[in-house]
Amino acid sequence: MRTEDVLAAIATGLWRWDNATGTVSLDAEAARLLGLPAEPARLTEAAVRARFHPVDWNENGGVVGLARAEGTLAESRLRVVGPDGRVIRTVRSRAKPLAEELGHPLVGSIQEVAEPAPGTAARSPVTGDWRRSREAFLLDAGRALAEARSTAEVLRVAASLSMPGFSPDGLAVFGVAGDRLTVTGHHGHSDGDEGPFTEMPLDTDYPAAEAARTGRAIYLPSPEEYKRRFPLTWPLAQRFGRQSWAFLPLIVAGRTMGAWMAAFKHPVAFTPDERSVLTTVARMLAQALARAGVAESERELSLGLQRTMMPALGPGIPGLAVAGRYVPTGGGLEIGGDWYDMIQLPGGRIALVIGDVQGHDVRAAGLMGQLRIALRAYASEGHRPDAVLSRASRFLHGITDGSDDPGGPRFATCLYLEVDPETGSLDIARAGHPEPAVRTADGTVLQQPTAGGLPLGVDPDSDYPTTRLRLEPGETLMVCTDGLLETGGHDLDSGWNRVRALLERHEGDSLEELADRLVEAVHGPGSHHTTGPLADRREDDIAVLLLSRTGDRTAVPAPRRAVMTVAQAEPERIADARRQLRQLLHDWTDEDQVDSAVLMVSEMVTNVLIHTDGDALLVAEVVCGDRTRRVRVEVSDASDDLPHKRHPGELASSGRGLLLMEMLADAWGVDPRGEGKCIWFELHEPSSGRGCCQ
User: Fold this and answer.
1) Are 183 and 189 in contact (CB under 8 A)?
2) Parallel, antiparallel, or unpaired for β 452-453 and 425-431?
3) For labelling alongside 358, which of 144, 375, 402, 501 has CA 20 to 30 A away?
4) pLDDT digits (tens, 9 = 90+) for 531-585
5) What is the pTM of this model?
6) Do 218 and 207 form a contact (C-beta atoms < 8 A)?
């Protein structure tokens, strides 16, 4: 007697599950036990899964996975269901992976087990377990579709959905454009297969067109049914070799936006439970596609506004290099009030502008566009930086005062500078904006204190004094909005320390690379395109401009220099002067000398504010000598009265300035000038043996 006859006599079949190819081979008896014709068959996993109760199949998957991992025997009990959802028999599967073959395929047996008496639970319709499995599937599907952010992601999620017991292997989403049916996306087909279905008239005798036209679902459980109901388009579907089809309308807010096709290579009866699942998935799919369409329209609008409002920095300027970045906030339309601009001026000069209109909404973006145009017009007329900002402030106040903006009148911070490419001279006017920073040729980064006024639009009569600086060859100027500094829980001070450390570490001359690193230091690489651990941290818009002077560098390094003015009305800027000097001497070897320099500067500037009626001009520079470095600090004022040395008593509150300089400075003096005088001192750095001037 043959082995096959013995196995058939005891209702036992043989099967092989090839994990590498995703196919299951059955002998005749195994095929019969699964409700198929009693002949050898080779089926896909999806087709075999459709023959079993979904709960049993899911449990069997865990048992099989463990057996493959451990090389042990997998044994499970499964219910075989018919097309009507009833259990027709119960089988026991016993299998073991073949470790010596690629992919560890499973081979085993399927044997029918005794059934309970008719009318018991085993013969009842599949209800409780099926519904629990269906609810779990729908929860997972709803979550996955809700998280999809684009049409492509929605289609990928839809293609990966594993419906309990009857997963489709072919999907297509159709849209409606006028009186035409279009293919939005598809899965389980080859490229080009969508050709005959693209731009199909809605009155075509095709199931998807009818579903989109009537808003009613169409279920075709067999090829015969498809051919009977849609004979004209049956040849288009016949070549795909499918056995069952479901076409469901995609309806959002009562409007049919298209149709969804789910096609199966194995027969599906489309029971009420199966239709319920398909209908629910179609509703979630329609909602997800609608959300994705709105999001994509908003992104396209944002990108269009950005491209319109953000300028190209133009062709290269001899002697200068310029780079800029704009990153919108992470919410809403991803547009806001930050901007930058570069303006060609008469005489070869250029103007750089950076600003931030209050708010992160469409109103802020609109005001930003108007203000940018106004600034361009005032600059092109030839006005100096202070006049440009004064006129811009009156303009912004005029268009926002009395407006119906629920947030009230808006203001804007702005920094405007003109640069002469030949000399590196910078004229800067500032309206409530963060101060610029300069990276010197030796890598030292200094904040440049500049005089400033109120933000634009606050006071139409506000003045904006101009500060003049000089950019030496090899130096880089950075100006930015507060978003670069304050994102990530930082304030202006801690955010500046973070950016300063990055500027100091930067090597090379590429401003584009430096601009990218500044943005990445705030967001993390690509964080604004991902979810999860690198959550979106765009709390505010970011705009940053970098300007570098690229002329020939001399053999002797240019002096490291800091310049600032302390006005009579701004005594609080004495603290800025002390901080500026400490930044200039950040790598000085003798900390006591640094403290001495700070003390003398504080005394010198304070004396100017107390004993004269003018402002104090501070100039400090570090110069390399033959063997060591020296720092020279000058404080100038407009008074002709020269100071003289006094000998104050113990209780005197003044008169010690020159005594301090005589005690602490290596050299000092008072030089009369055409208008006013200059008090200066020098400190020589002790030799450190490290070749500091090389």
Assistant:
1) no
2) parallel
3) 501
4) 333 344 456 788 899 999 876 555 455 677 888 888 888 888 899 899 889 888 8
5) 0.56
6) yes
